[in-house]
Structures are given as C-alpha cells and as structure tokens.
Design goal:
The complex is a heterodimer. Chain A is of the alpha/beta class. Chain A is built from 14 helices and eleven strands. In chain A, β2, α2 and β3 form a beta-alpha-beta unit. In chain B, the strands form two sheets. A five-stranded antiparallel sheet of chain B has the order 6-5-4-7-8. Classes of the chains: A alpha/beta, B mainly beta.
C-alpha cells in the first residue's frame, strides 16, 4: 500500500476566494491577496488574526523581492507561525495545500491561508532573472518563450503518434464555453469560438497557434485550510478534502536525450490513484493545468484516462462539458479564463473547489463527489516541463 | 508604429565559471561538452555537476558536432533580437556522442527537413569574443 497521510481526511478546505482575472489592472499581488482574504473572512466569519499559517508562491510581479512572503504577511496584517514560499510554477497552489496539510497535522499551525496572486499582465516578465540556462542557452538561440518549447514537444508527438488538430480545437471550444458562464474569466475571452477559429488563429511557433496558448494576466485566488476537527467544530458544512497528492520535479534528470512526449505525470498520475485507492474511472471531474492545449492531452494519456497516442480519440469520444462523462476545466481553464501569472495554477484548483461546494453557477456538475486537479511548473532546457503534480479532492 | 522599439541585436551569452570552457572552445569553432567518464554520457547544458553522479567528476571533451535532427519548430513570432530572421527554424539535435542541443537550423528550408536527418554544428560570430552554435545539413 502506498503511504498516504491524507487518506483519513485530517484536513479540510473551508473556503475559497477569487477575483476576476484582468488584462492589466495596475494592482500589485498584495491588493489581490487582500481581496481574496477579504472574501474568505466574510464567508467564514473568521478574523485575520485567526490565520496562523500562510503559504504562497513567488509572483512574477514581485520577482526580485527576496522577502516576499514576509512582506505579504505584513500587508495583510497577519502574524503567521508557519510560512511557506513555493516556486514550482503552476504546481504551487495545489502543492501548497499538501504543504499546509503537513504543517497542520504536525501541529505547526492550525488555520492556513494558501493564496496565489500575481500581476504579470501589468508588469510583464522582462524584469525576471531566470538563472542557470535561460539567459545563456535559450535566449541567445532565439527562444521566444514557452510556445517554442511546446512547438518542439508537439512536433515530437506528431512524429510518434500523429497530432490531431481537430481534437485540440475541440478542447479549446469546451474550455471557452466554460469561460462564457464564468464571471471571473477575463473579459476579453467571454465570446464563443469554433474549432475553425482555433485552426485559423495566428501561428506562433509551428504547430502552436495563438489559441493553443494561455495568456498571462492579473488576478488572485486562494483558500483556507484547517484541521477537519476544527472545521466541524466551526459548524461549517461545505468542506472539501484533499485525499491524495503526488508531486515530482525534474523528471529523469540522468537521461541526456529524453523523450519529450513523456513527463512526470507518468509517475505521479498512477501514484495518486494508488494513494487514493481509485482509478481514472472513479474521477467525476478533471481540472488539468492548461498552459497549452496539448499539455492537457498529454496528461490524459499519462495519468491513465487513455493510452499513449489515444488522446485525440479520447477527447473526440468523450463529452467534457459540465453535463458530460468527464467535465473538464468547467470555468474555462487558464486558456480561456486567463493565467494570473504564477498564480495561474490556482485557477483550475479554485474551480474544482467551487464545484465541490456546489457554487459553480451556470456550469454546476451534478453529483460531482470528487475532482482531479493537476499542476505543471517551469519550462526547462528542452526536456519536458519541470514539475508535475496531481491532487484528488473530495466534497463533504 | 511610432512607439515601436528598434530591433535590438541578438543576445550575447554571458559564460559562467562552469560553462567557460564550452565558450572558449566555441571561439575556436569547436564543440565541447561535459561527459561522464564512466558511462560516456554527455550532457548539455554545462552544469556544476555530472548529473549521472551528482559530483563534479565530469570531463570536458571535444565532440564531433555531428548529430541527428529529432524535432523542429518554425518560429513566426521572434525572440528579442531575431525579428529580422523571421520565420526561423529551431531544431532539437541529438548529438552522435549523446546529449541534446536546441539551436537555429541554417542553410536549409523547412520543406527539406526530415526526422533523423544528419546535421552538423556551424558557428555564428555573435560578438568579437563569442561564437554561437547553429546546425546545418551534414551533406
């Protein structure tokens, strides 16, 4: 049996908060974190002084502030006894749930706010310093950004299995339909698209098109997590439990010529199911990290919803709408709701929690008892992505 | 557009203490990689350790610069400094001695590219001190 400290549901998510994603707000991450905290204090009746743990990620907009977490606590009037800064990109928000859970069950703190907020739409990314390889070996050869990495991955996939653009376009449409009924989706994306629109969108780095890509913006989201015992004592009814979690970074570092169509999901996908005692058939909703459409298809294959190379058939043969057999990123995903910088990993996570609390107005999945949420973090030197994680959430 | 910034020159890489031998070799038109002396596996990019062992027990070896093309992408939206090259092709090259380098493919049209085709390193003089690797068909 795989060890799983979350199996007996020792911790519960008691509230979530989210602001509408915006193209460029002029706000800093601090203001978004404050709005998110305010929503959650309102919902729970807690005071900021009740929060004794704080977990967040390094926002792009604050890159260079080596005291970010401390500064955030100060901005929010918090006096945490446990602090966590997580820098695994889109894995950070769900990764912080696991870290907070470990801190709570070991008695380091009792009421943790996990918050993700960024203003990448306002600041851009040009001021960042990405050490190691990006400046020395990627930018000098014409690396334009993540579309180049995913262009190469897509081409490798095309050679190995064949790339089905219609299936990818179908994913784009499914997600866009979610954004149409999500008030927190970025305003610019709240208009319908077709598979044809996807096919005809501008080529960035072949075969990656504009509508394959996520768009960075400003925004924030977060959640409050505490011991299940305390959550029940508070009399709260809408609880969401993290029941299994797996994470991996730097998949197969000793292979100098890796197959870029394989990722850490080949490890953490099967592992998270083993931890939960579940299989892909048991999953009611899938909320995968989506920086590029093909990333979702690769995850479906490697997590085990279908076999390698079968992703397109699976997509075209499965109703992924909120009334379908496997609802997918019902709020639009990041690709259609916007990616609030390095807080983007919280967009699909928040939607999963909202669904499990029964508050996804206009797109509520009936009788959904659980959700699989994933994260992807960091574009490395032309391997696949840097971090992969999977979390299974269950409703009360 | 009135507010359009002039195209900057393509970036000149800044060597680190670890990677300096590679850039020194590049200046002579030679490709040098870190190699694990036990398994013979080469690694690119240069790191402070041999990733096979986690120790600094790598050796610098001059390699042939020959390899095969595994994947490529034609870039239509350029990186800073590459606007006057659009569209340009970036290719993923598996070196004969092992290791993988992604670089601009030159002296070839994308219609002529085939998976597994033989390529060899060539050099673009980026500054007085710095040659940047590119690849071209090995015919």
């Amino acid at each position: 049996m795989v060890d799983n400290f979350l199996r007996d549901k020792p911790v519960a998510i008691i509230a979530y908060g989210e602001v509408q994603n915006q193209r460029s707000s002029g706000k800093r991450p601090y203001e978004f974190a404050a709005e998110v905290m305010g929503q959650m204090l309102e919902k729970t009746g807690l005071k900021n002084s009740d929060i004794d743990g704080l977990a967040t990620h390094m926002p792009t907009a604050e890159a260079g502030n080596t005291f970010y977490t401390n500064t955030l606590a100060d901005n929010l009037g918090l006096q945490p006894r446990w602090l966590q800064l997580t820098d695994i990109g889109g894995c950070s928000p769900s990764g912080n749930i696991a870290r907070a859970a470990a801190a709570i069950v070991t008695g380091q703190c009792e009421m943790v706010m996990c918050v993700a907020a960024d203003s990448t739409g306002t600041t851009g990314v040009g001021h960042r310093r990405l050490g190691g390889y990006r400046q020395e070996f990627m930018e000098p050869i014409g690396f334009q950004g993540p579309p180049v990495a995913f262009g190469l991955i897509s081409h490798a996939y095309d050679q190995k299995y064949g790339l089905n653009l219609e299936a990818l376009g179908h994913l784009a449409v499914v997600q866009r339909n979610g954004a149409l009924v999500n008030d927190n989706a970025i305003e610019q994306f709240r208009k319908p698209i077709t598979v044809q629109d996807y096919m005809e969108s501008r080529i960035i780095a072949e075969p990656i098109r504009l509508l394959d890509c996520v768009m960075r913006c400003d925004g924030g989201n977060g959640l409050l997590i505490t011991s299940t015992e305390r959550a029940r004592a508070m009399g709260l009814e809408k609880l969401v439990y993290p029941v299994a979690y797996s994470e991996i970074t730097n998949f197969e570092p000793d292979d100098p010529n890796p197959d870029v169509t394989e990722t850490g999901f080949a490890t953490v996908g099967p592992e998270v199911f083993a931890k939960a005692g579940m299989s892909p058939d048991d999953i009611d909703m899938f909320h995968p990290y989506d920086d590029f459409l093909i990333a979702m298809m690769l995850q479906m294959e490697q997590i085990g919803f279908c076999g390698r190379g079968e992703g397109a058939d699976f997509i075209l043969g499965t109703d992924m709408s909120p009334i379908g057999t496997l609802p997918l990123n019902t709020g639009g995903g990041q690709i259609s709701a916007g990616q609030p910088g390095l807080g983007g990993g919280g967009v699909n996570l928040t939607e999963a929690i909202r669904q499990l609390m029964g508050e996804a107005t206009g797109r509520q999945v009936e009788d959904a008892k659980n959700a699989l949420v994933t994260g992807i973090g960091v574009i490395p030197y032309f391997r696949n992505w840097g971090s992969s994680n999977c979390m299974i959430l269950e409703g009360a | 557009m009135a507010d359009e910034k002039p195209n900057p020159p393509p970036p000149v890489p800044t060597p680190s203490l670890v990677s300096q031998p590679m850039w020194d070799a590049a200046k002579e038109g030679k490709l040098a990689l870190q190699v694990d002396p036990v398994s013979g596996k080469a690694q690119f990019w240069p790191r402070p350790v041999n990733v096979q062992t986690g120790r600094a027990d790598y050796e610098w070896r001059e390699v042939s610069g020959k390899g095969t093309l595994s994947a490529w992408t034609k870039v239509h939206v350029p990186a800073p400094g590459f606007a006057d090259r659009v569209p340009y092709i970036l290719g993923s090259v598996d070196l004969v001695e092992g290791g993988r380098i992604v670089a601009q493919l030159v002296n070839v049209e994308d219609e002529a590219l085939t998976p597994g085709m033989a390529v060899k390193v060539s050099w673009e003089k980026r500054s007085k001190e710095t040659n940047v690797y590119q690849f071209e068909p090995d015919v």
